[in-house]
Amino acid sequence: MKSRLFAILVPFLAGVAFIALWQLAAGRYTPEQLPGPADVLKAIKELSDNGVLWGHIGISLVRFGSAYLLAVAIAIPLGLFLGRFSRCHAAIDPLIQVLRPISPIAWFPLAVLWFGIGNAPAVFIIFLAAFYPVLLTTISAVRGVPPLYLKVAGNFGAGSRMTFLRVIVPAAFPGIMVGLHIAVGTAWIHLVAGEMLGAQSGLGFMIVDARNFLRTDQIMAGMLLVGLLGLGIYRGMKAVERLLGRRWGVTS
Questions:
Q1: What whole-number distance in Å separates Cα of residue 36 and Cα of residue 29?
Q2: Residue 90 CB contacts under 8 Å (≥ 6 apart), including other chains
Q3: More confidently predicted of 128 and 11
Q4: Could you tell me if 149 and 171 are in contact, meaning their C-beta atoms sit under 8 angstroms apart?
Q5: pTM for this structure?
Q6: Percentages (nearest 5) of helix, strand, coil residues in the chain
Q7: How many alpha carbons fall within 13 Å on the CB side of residue 93?
Q8: Confidence of residue 94 (pLDDT cuts 50, 70, 90)
């Protein structure tokens, strides 16, 4: 009970301290330079009343969800395969290491040439931002499965398919989840960047549009909403992680 109260109280006090510091800093500037918390809340209400806010949030979430899930659907099976078959991994790893350091933003001019202006370039950038963290951590997690697990499975007569599904995948699950968490952060950051560069809707576009009209309060409202939505996505992933962890006996 005490630990649960502590887990709720400390983040709450940290949030209160942050808002107090924000208000204190805002008092040193004009509202156009640094709006206070009340001004940002008014901007959120204004955007909500105008019907603009929810449309941008919905479009951003759809872009993020589709690109992230596509990256996961490709990266995890590929990572499981490359982690299991070391010769295939050795053959393709140099190519991965060449492409991985290239910032997703650097692909944006080519993405516009390939896909035009709109949803597709932003989705492509989000996909790249999520793909490599999931792929590399999945490969590492599979290669890090203790050989003893495989020997025990073999001693009990488990075939290769059962060993893969019942031993390797559950044992690699914590490492894979690390990659999924990393990918959520990088993909969400690049979602906003992609929408700022070429999209005509979404939270990134809303921030750029507010900048064009010198609405600092709306800029910070967009930034705050990006952070809060990111927190919500993180909490949702932690809930899924606990559910799967209990299913495979990884967590209690």
A1: 9
A2: none
A3: 128
A4: yes
A5: 0.83
A6: 85, 0, 15
A7: 12
A8: very high
Tell me how far apart the alpha carbons of residues 60 and 194 are, in angstroms, rounded to a whole number: 10
DSSP summary character for residue 155: H
What is the domain partition of the chain in residue ranges? 1-30, 32-247
Average pLDDT in the 30-56 region?
89
* Residues 218-232 pLDDT 10s: 999 999 999 999 889
Token output for 14: 């940290």
Kindly report the number of other CB atoms within 10 A of residue 197's CB atom.
Answer: 19
Of 130, 240, 138, the residue nearest 194 (C-alpha): 130
pLDDT at 137 > cutoff 80: yes
User: What number does CATH give the domain 32-247?
Assistant: 1.10.3720.10
DSSP 1: -
Find where tokens 């963290």 sit. Answer: 133
3-state secondary structure 16-36: HHHHHHHHHHHCCCCCCCCCC
State whether residue 159 is helix, strand or coil: coil
pLDDT tens, residue by residue, 190-245: 888 888 776 788 888 899 888 888 899 999 999 999 999 988 988 888 888 788 76
Residue 250 binned pLDDT confidence (cut-offs 50, 70, 90): low
Q: How far apart are CA 55 and CA 200, in angstroms?
A: 12
Span 56-85, average pLDDT: 92
DSSP of 31-99, one letter per residue?
TTTS--HHHHHHHHHHHHHTT-HHHHHHHHHHHHHHHHHHHHHHHHHHHHHHHH-HHHHHHHHHHHHHH
H/E segment holding residue 109: helix 108-115
